[in-house]
Amino acid sequence: MAQLLDGKAIAKQIQQEIKAEVAEFSRLSGVTPTLAAVLVGDNPASQVYVRNKEQACGRAGIVSQLYRLSADTTEKELLELVKRLNQDASVHGILVQLPLPKQIDSQRVLDAISPLKDVDAFHPENVGLISQGRPRFLPCTPHAVQQILHRNGITTIGKHVVIVGRSNIVGRPLALMLSQADSTCGAELANATVTLCHSKSNHLAENTALADILVAAVGRPEFITGEMIKDGAVVVDVGINRTEKGLVGDVEFSSAEKVASYITPVPGGVGPMTVTMLLYNTVQAARLQTR
Questions:
Q1: Which of 1, 68, 93, 189 has the most Cβ atoms closer than 10 angstroms to its Cβ?
Q2: Is there a contact between 156 and 191 (Cβ–Cβ < 8 Å)?
């Protein structure tokens, strides 16, 4: 039976570390790290996520500003708000909550955020730095995965990591990070042999069965079953899917936990850590802008 990788407990620990760092930084600089979150429309999942971020900021001593815009907000109006936040020296991080309404080009909005305030690490400049192994910020969910492994003493060096899902938010950046020669957690959490699979991959189950560490980030409820997992593999489930029976991940938990050595639960696994790494990036952004 697999041992649980408790993201909630690790998040609490790291948030305490961030709180101490914020207090010391503020004492020395007179600056309090500030995150501006922009929520367009009334998507229920987005509202929950933004509320969780606000609460986490409060626990860590980070100032949280929330800008709520109506669902019929135009792209021009949103870009004007982003421009104002870029120019506001008291704001260190800008987060535009996705998804955005269909009349708004999400990529254009994300590209408009100053790279120095892009705490989601979605801007092309920041993605390019990640690809070169010299990141300014790391995207929150991939960094969360790395930290969960690190804090549980699980290394990636020399191991075969299979990632199912090629999104620009999780799969692609995580593949880049784990295949680098070093990481923010040290060389032991890099230097992996990475296979990036997706919905059109042939022989998917054969690939997943080779993984020492399997990361599910495909966005399909309970898509990965125990039969697709190598005995003793580490399984990290990034998925959060709302179904009739409640929240489930991309991994069919009951069958997977019988063959895995470690597994993240849903909820309570990667989710709380993603929010925590956003706080981490906000503090780093404040440091960069205060020098």
A1: 93
A2: yes
